[in-house]
Design a protein that fits this description.
Distance between the termini of chain A: 27 Å
Oligomer: heterodimer
Radius of gyration of chain B: 23 Å
Number of helices of chain A: 16
Number of helices of chain B: 8
Number of strands of chain A: 28
Helix content of chain B: 10-25%
Strand content of chain A: 15-25%
Helix content of chain A: 25-40%
Largest sheet of chain B: 8 strands, mixed
Largest interface: A-B, 90 and 79 residues
Largest sheet of chain A: 5 strands, parallel
Mean pLDDT of chain B: 93
Shape of chain A: elongated
Amino acid sequence: MDEQGVPRRIGVYVCHCGGNISDVVDVETVTDRAGADEDVVIARHLPFMCSDEGQTTIEKDIAELGLDRVVVAACTPSLHETTFRRTVSRAGLNAYLYQHANIREQVSWAHVHDHAAATEKAARVVQAAIAKAASLHELDMVRVAAVHRALVVGGGVAGLRAALDLARFGMEVVLVERSKVLGGHTLRLGRTYPTEEPGRALVERLAAAVRAEPLVDVRLSTEVTGVSGYVGDFQVTLHSVAPSGNGSAGSDEVEVGAIVLATGFRDYEPAAGEYGFGGPGVVTLAAFQERLYAEEPDGDLAAALGMQGPVRAVAFLHCVGSRQAEGIDGGDGELNTYCSRVCCTASVRAAAETRRRFPDVRVVDVFRDIRTYARDQEDAYRAAGQAGVLFVRLPNDERARVETAAAEDPYPLLVRARDSLTFGAELELPVDVVVLATGMEPGGADALVAATKAPTGADGFLLEVHPKLRPVESATPGILLAGTARGPMDITESTTSASAAAAKVATLLARDQVEMEPFVAKVDPSRCSGNGACVSACPYAGAIGLQELELEDGVVEQRAYVNPVACKGCGACVAVCPNGAIDVQGWEIPQYVAMVDAITADDATPVPVGAGTEAGSS
Amino acid sequence: MSERTAAGEIDTDVLVVGAGIAGLQAALDLADQGNRVLLVEREASIGGRMIALSKVFPTMDCSSCITTPKMSSAAHHELVTTFTYTDVGSVEPAGRGFEATIVRRPRYVDEEACIGCRLCEYACPVDVPHEFDGGLGARRAVYIPFGTAIPQKAVVDLPNCILCGKCEKACPTDAIDFLQEPETITVRARAVVLTTGYRPTPTGAKKEYGAGRISNVIGGLDMERLLSPNGPYGRVLRPSDGKVPENIAYVQCAGSRDETLGVPYCSRVCCMYAVKQAMLLSGSLPVADITIYYMDIRAFGKGYEEFFQTARSMGINFVKAKVARIHERPDGDLDLRVELEEDDGRVEDVTHDLVVLSVGLQPGDDVRRFAPVSTDAYGFVRSADPALDATATDVPGLFAAGTALAPKDIVDTVAEASAVAMRVAAYLRETATPAGELVGVAHG
């Protein structure tokens, strides 16, 4: 019933889902019980509500029976809530006068073996949805005018690729790079996978394309020092130490609709003494590669590495700073449990290259699992073996040890490792050089990340909303993730993820307005006492605040207000308000109460655990 | 909407070939950017391989729950036209884009009239092994492809149909039409995206593993169906006798990293799906022993190593070994000769009651048959610029994404599909002048 006690005109539609529901739930009983509600004008059950037949039936009923609310009981709302909102909207009803009830994932699939209880639960879930539908109000989407300009942070290959794509799509881009040059880590790579193109040449090709785009404003030696605003309209403060692009030295502000974080990674820096690091002859793979590819094939590897003695034997050690395990790896206390993805291929390629250029140098490669996962990478692994690289496989929970050899020994370093390929033999490998295949670490832009509120995962890298559904979007709307800021990747994967992030920016800003769901907090100023508990509880910047409001008697007092664009509808403010002055639109407390009342209306029959409709979102 | 300009002709912005997760994601992104898309699919439903999977690593979401919203969004998007049961005959550069010939194969069911009620299916007397369930379950000769298929339209499997006419009588909308003919359509598109996917390396490829003739030696995708809530048995049973397996073996690289099969490359997903299935099995069969025989565990993606370590701590048995051969016993159990690559390197004979071959990925279609692209030695589409522009082929305006390019997992496929959409959208803009006239530009 409405506030005046007049019955609503609700239509209820129960879906069979082609047997997915109706094989377990007696849809006729559910429909009959729904039809008995005084607010329900029509209740039907159909094989597939999402089919054209189902949707047309709803539209026809709205027109002919004058329905004012619609409930569909079907699958999870994440599948078809939007479908049915569009359906009722097409028939002239406000899209938010629609309520979805999940009787598939939460009923028929969950209670396959108890048809009677499943039917009872479905009936109550539907009754709860009817009760909520009766108290729904019309809502409008939150709309923001979109600024047709994007900020790309980071001038490595990912940032360059994203900027290039967006410019070619016709969008203005501000590309900010902290250092004096474009290209990032790729610049240091002598040869890149898979084409063997030198890193510098690859960067030059990409950077030249970016510079040729008049829509890209490249700002070198520039950092982002502040971010405010929200999707569609961010205000970003840039600080430059030297003039570049359209910016001068000092601070200036740009307005953008979306931000691509292509802030890259940091090389793992081994601790002093970790696998002999810091001592003579122990280098990181990045440093070794730089020297290796710079040196002529007939050159002197020792001289290139800046070493006194001859280089007769080199050992590569994998997983330094990656795949660390509690109780095995010491490190700096914080363990990098993840795999850094690129080091295996880089190591086997460098090992093979060392053998090819310096055939007299013996090369041993100590690994746990060789992860040459991409197609041609397996060829590189095989080629390393053919080039005479000796592979040593460590048991899963064991590590190699690097020791300084005794003074009388012919080689300065000794690598000890147990080799499962030779059935657990304890090997002592005398070498001149140890190359540590260090992994990737997150970071390098902590302040910026904090300013954007983009969350990070347990591994410290920027966190995507969902690895499959939304792999390049952060939980903050309008903040996209490109390249290794999201986790270890190679160049191909970085540029691909950058294009994907650009695609999301293009979709977001292609229209004049950015639209968002209206499920946001709303303050009732007449009940608000301005105590600010909501402001402290709010996890989102600028979503809720206090402002001075002149009351009827002329007294000016603090009252809370919500910025619907920044609010995510989490309800943290609702829970802490002592006066019940805040509620989340579309999920109001009286609506919850109505649902609970409907579910528990008659407790003669026990209801399976977990009854209730799923919180809708799309 | 892609426009029908005349009978048998369609004008569109982008033709996407293959409606698996890559094609769906690319089509959705392109359409959301305002482009018209014609999405064609060889099978009777969109959804590709992913819709047949149980749960997916590393998040362990139910695969249907991730795939069906994308399928549904594509099917209902006003700028996406979807044709299932459709083959691509040719794709050629023509004028301002491409001209493609597509052939809609007859379903022998009027798609407009069919309401998906399944009465035909219930009436049909013919049982046929169901491809969707890896042949482990059965379907009828007229059938809806599977529960979450889109469209929910029946299809007649004519080679298996006995023409009894029972479906025709049962159909309430007279949708059965045995006189349907293939329909050839000429498509004019400004760009084309190949998302033709993969097929698993056949379980019968290796004679050492029974050449596909041992019923309790199944492929990884078959296990996906056994683990699915809507799978053929509704639970995990071994195929030969319906026994609940108690001692399951996974044989890794069964059809990858194997030069004798012409598949020397790593298929990239098999380690992770084996680890995932082992975890799911330890949930559904808590007393079963599960052993994974492997060369290297390639848990390289975000969160994958942690996933692998969780599996180890759950008591799943990881053994570094090569499986030399598999013999079937009279009771259906399997003798495996295992060459250990750890401990003392001995050769062991062990018995399991179900063996899962972690089969690899091969190209889903021979794209050179219809498109002027170059492929590598294995038939995967070659990227023109693998490091910087992985989705571009050597033909301007012709792009590819997903496992059509190389084996890859869903996470990487979805990102690549969005990437190709971006590249195509930029290409469409670059090749159109403001007046809508099209000009040729250098590709890159």
